[in-house]
Design brief:
This protein is α/β, with parallel strands linked by helices and 293 residues long. It is built from twelve helices and ten strands. Helix 1 links the parallel strand 1 and strand 2. Helix 1 (17-25) packs parallel to helix 2 (45-53), helix 5 (131-144) packs across helix 12 and helix 8 packs parallel to helix 12. The radius of gyration is 19 Å and the shape is globular.
Length: 293
């Protein structure tokens, strides 16, 4: 039986991390380890996780000083490697796995030895019902509707990896702060590796409370440091443009066009969001380039 390591990083995640951990630790697969690296939380995230740890001996918690998500993820992955896992699952602390996800993904990879990694479809939800939260949930579910094949214009990072396939990519770069999550997937694809979407399962992703303002503020920071990521990858800028908002083929699938017709208000909001964020991206990347010059 192959061991599966589910890893995540946390930062001030006390409000939702228990649900994420329970969804991992109650999977119906016999050999699972869960490793969490906490990125210097200032709330009671560690204490909340320790309460969960009292029930599960296969949960490891690694407290770290606050740095960046990539550093915390690498620490968790190193621990998973030490625990001799054959499969690696990279998660966020606000994600909840569907029951049976681990078992079904391992079975799929056993049947398809040519596939090295799987994208796990993210089923968006939120307890908030304001307009921009609904737009964000709608957008995520549109992007989800992309079929099994992962292509050069895809934006989703593979999350369920054969460990040796992940290692072949060089893994996460601790110096990359934005859009670092997808880089191993892009490198793996560029080297001829096969990535598929696990259309037979998925995970729930809480979009929480969204406004156009907080979406812009969040992305503005990531765009301001995006050039650091792109300049450290062989196909950085070209690859980013292939995946940039309106260039994503998934947006134009016939099934998604029907969704826009059925929900014109949400589709309009999605368009406004993309136009706004495209402008923010162009501005921040230009500022970054000018600072370097």
């Amino acid at each position: 039986m192959s061991r599966v390591a589910l890893i995540m990083s946390t930062y001030n995640s006390a409000a939702f991390v228990t649900n994420a951990l329970e969804s991992c630790l109650t999977q119906d697969y016999p050999d699972i380890v869960v490793v969490v690296a906490d990125d210097g939380s200032t709330d009671n995230t560690i204490e909340v996780m320790e309460k969960v740890q009292e029930k599960y001996s296969n949960l490891s918690i690694i407290p770290l000083p606050h740095g960046e998500r990539g550093v915390a993820r690498i620490a968790a992955i190193d621990k998973a490697r030490e625990l001799q896992a054959q499969y690696l699952v990279v998660l966020d602390s606000d994600m909840v796995l569907q029951p049976g996800l681990v078992r079904e993904c391992v079975a799929y990879l056993d049947r398809n030895p040519e596939v090295g990694a799987l994208v796990l479809p993210e089923i968006a939800f939120s307890d908030s019902d304001n307009y921009w939260t609904k737009v964000k949930v709608f957008e995520r579910n549109v992007l989800n509707n992309a079929g099994e094949d992962w292509g050069r214009n895809s934006i989703e990072a593979a999350r369920f990896w054969r460990f040796d396939a992940y290692d072949s990519t060089g893994g996460f770069n601790p110096n990359q702060i934005s859009f670092e999550e997808i880089q191993p997937t892009i490198r793996y694809d560029a080297a001829g590796g096969i990535v598929k979407r696990a259309t037979f399962t998925g995970l729930y992703h809480d979009e929480k409370y969204a406004t156009l303002k907080n979406l812009v503020e969040k992305k503005k920071y990531y765009f301001s440091v995006m050039d650091n990521t792109l300049s450290s990858e062989d196909q950085g800028i070209k690859s980013a443009l292939q995946r940039f908002y309106f260039f994503r083929p998934v947006l134009y699938r016939s099934s998604n066009l029907k969704q826009y017709a059925s929900h014109p208000g949400l589709a309009a909001g999605m368009g406004v969001m993309y136009v706004t964020l495209s402008g923010v991206a162009a501005s921040e990347v230009l500022k970054s380039r000018l600072r370097k010059d």
